[in-house]
Amino acid sequence: MAQVAPAVAQKSGESLLFLTDEQLRKGIEAMFFAYRGFTADPDRILEEKGYGRAHHRAIHFIHRAPGTTVNNLLSILGVTKQSLNRVLRSLIEDGLVESRVGHRDKRERHLYLTEAGLELEHQLSDAQRARMRDAYRAAGPAAVAGFRQVLEAMMDPEMRRHFHRITERGA
Amino acid sequence: MAQVAPAVAQKSGESLLFLTDEQLRKGIEAMFFAYRGFTADPDRILEEKGYGRAHHRAIHFIHRAPGTTVNNLLSILGVTKQSLNRVLRSLIEDGLVESRVGHRDKRERHLYLTEAGLELEHQLSDAQRARMRDAYRAAGPAAVAGFRQVLEAMMDPEMRRHFHRITERGA
DNA sequence: ATCTTATGTCAGCCTTGTTGACTTTCCAAG
DNA sequence: CTTGGAAAGTCAACAAGGCTGACATAAGAT
């Protein structure tokens, strides 16, 4: 990619402008406001169906890694099993998620979206991708590459591992 | 590092690869995992003091726009006055925030951080800026510019207005 | 004098997070 | 075969922080 810019460049010069407190604060505020937009569209859909963000997250990652175990989902989402279980139970009851007993290890439950689950996932992800697509389109490919680099650098190492594991299939 | 590069399609001249569903999903997941990192450090500090993210947000924006009114804060934060009031009350009781009756319009309350409030703000923002600085440094100035462009494009128009209003002082 | 705005507050509800305790299932090591 | 421990589920209780609705005050605006 384009930027190498070790930023160590001209000492008393500039180019370190992007590391001033003011710039960092703007980045922080941008994250805050952008995240609101990021979740706004799915939130509207979810509210109609009587679900919340917790349901969205479960649906998203089950769709992304069909057959994932509860434990795996737990470590991706970073919540307690009790929290996840409440969400999962309602999704299973409502017929959006199917829980299959493991064949190798029958203690494990493997999670899959049902037809109805896939449909909701689609609806949610369509809305969220539309927003992301518009933002990407407005900013252009180079900006998108930078966006992704900064986000990745911002993750905790464990989350970065999850990110790569989930993401490594496909481009 | 890793393959962030949009392997760039040499389609009929332009790179639209960054708009594939897969790329968009990766962007969505990057936002999710990065936001976790973004809030992780302040969250740890807040927990020690018995506060939550809601307190952090109030402190942040009061610091950013000292003398702001309750109504203004309300529209920035996008919560109800009851929600904000609960948070504000505890901050005022604990002596972190001061509420002064307006001079021109005595119905308004203008909010300021006290010495103690400024100190906590500093502690929180130091932690958050440190993470942001490391991410910026790792990604470089060009990536940072792209990062900010995409985030801004992702905001709802009203949030973007707030962002610009808050941000337009300084660089 | 009346309408409206800004703020504060009480009560109650929901979602989603937490901890702790306990059970069931079942793999695997002794 | 027995037993230890991991995976999963469940129940109960609690807290933070959203929400709505209702109501009270003070004070600017008409």
From TrEMBL, chains A, B:
Signal sequence span per UniProt? none
Q: Which UniProt keywords apply?
A: DNA-binding, Transcription, Transcription regulation
Gene Ontology process terms (BP): response to stress
**Gene3D superfamilies documented for this protein:** Winged helix-like DNA-binding domain superfamily/Winged helix DNA-binding domain
GO MF entry, a single one: DNA binding
Ranges for domain HTH marR-type: 21-156
Query: Per its UniProt record, what SMART domains does this chain match?
Result: HTH_MARR (SM00347)
The keyword Transcription regulation appears for this protein = yes
Keyword Iron-sulfur among UniProt keywords: no
**Full protein name:** MarR family transcriptional regulator
Q: Specify the species.
A: Rhodovulum kholense
